[in-house]
Amino acid sequence: MANGITETIGLDMGDRYTRYSILDQRSGEEVGSGRVRTTPTGMERFLENYPRARVVLEVGTHSRWANQVAQDTCAEVLVANPRKLTFIYQNNRKSDEVDAEALARVGRLDPKLLSPIRHRSGAAQADLAILRARAGLVSARTKLVNTLRGIVKSFGSRIPPQAPKRIGHKTLAFVPEELHPALGPLLLSIEALSDEITEYDQRVDSLADEKHPASSCFTQVYGVGKLTAMAYILTVEDQGRFRSSRTAGAYFGLVPRRDQSGAVEKQLSITKAGDRMVRTLLVQCAHRILASNAPDSDLRRAGERIASRGGRTAKRRAVIAVARKLAVLLHALWRTGEVYEPLKNNQAQTA
């Protein structure tokens, strides 16, 4: 039996309980099923009875620690990519028990169908938590600022255009007097959030300088700051993850989906796979690269060529294309350690 595997265990993890299905590796018959508490202790007690098992689970909130527990107790662990298992969610008879058995059957027959992913290390996850916490504060501040502007506008006034970080108690001068009791606390909350975000920015800078000096390769590119560099490094974690730097665009969901049949191939939107926060940051960097006051570069020229084709979505497609090229460029700089040359491609063509 390959790799000495005797059973395949499918785990459908819930917040309180995890359903499991155990298949005999040789016959494919279900030899056990049930549920176990979704805790490290409960999972360890269950899995230590199957040291020669292959464990299959999906990416989720609990998958990182469950993967570690399973690796310590079982022969093999596969963490499935849910995007590749749509047949589970489209099942008309969907249930936790059915999902667990489906994971086990796919994992028993052909693990490649699971498109297994690799979890990042605990240290990288902890550093990434700083960036995610900052993103949560920025999102909360944006909602509060929008609420402020909407209420003030409904009374016939407007808050002058300014960066959210500049909105605070001084903004009360632009708020109608009858709204001062209602919006004063809201302005203080916005100001407090801005102060917290500033502190997080300082922590990100320290993290980049002290623990991840490779981030300096990324910040050579105009429009890329330490926040984007750290998010990219901590998400990919291993520069050898990709065989080719071109894979980075697909990893962050910046390539179009494909639907081809015969001579017909539809134009579809991007996949939006991978980490949403990094994809958003790359798109924001692309906007800076394409801004009117940005310096000339190969990335900028590539975006301008696409935008010049015209059409309703030309500008949007140009931004996505630049973000995709930027993802590839950053990985190449990280892997090679080269000095960034903004017009390298143009100089080569001219020569």
What order do the strands of the largest sheet run in, or round the barrel if closed? 3-2-1-4-5
Tally of strands: 7
Distance, first to last CA = 59 Å
- Give the proportion of residues in helices: 40-55%
Q: How large is the share of residues in beta strands?
A: 5-15%
For the CA atoms, what is the radius of gyration? Answer: 25 Å
Instruction: Determine the mean pLDDT.
Output: 91
Describe this structure in words.
It contains 13 helices and 7 strands. It is of the alpha/beta class and 351 residues long. The protein has a 5-stranded mixed beta sheet. Strands 6-7 form a two-stranded antiparallel sheet. The model has no long low-confidence stretch (mean pLDDT 91).
What are the SSEs and their pairings?
Blueprint: E1 7-13, E2 17-24, E3 30-37, H1 40-47, E4 53-58, H2 63-73, E5 76-80, H3 86-89, H4 96-109, H5 122-154, H6 180-210, H7 215-218, H8 226-236, H9 247-251, E6 260-261, E7 264-265, H10 276-289, H11 298-307, H12 314-336, H13 344-350
Parallel strand pairs: 1-4, 4-5
Antiparallel strand pairs: 1-2, 2-3, 6-7
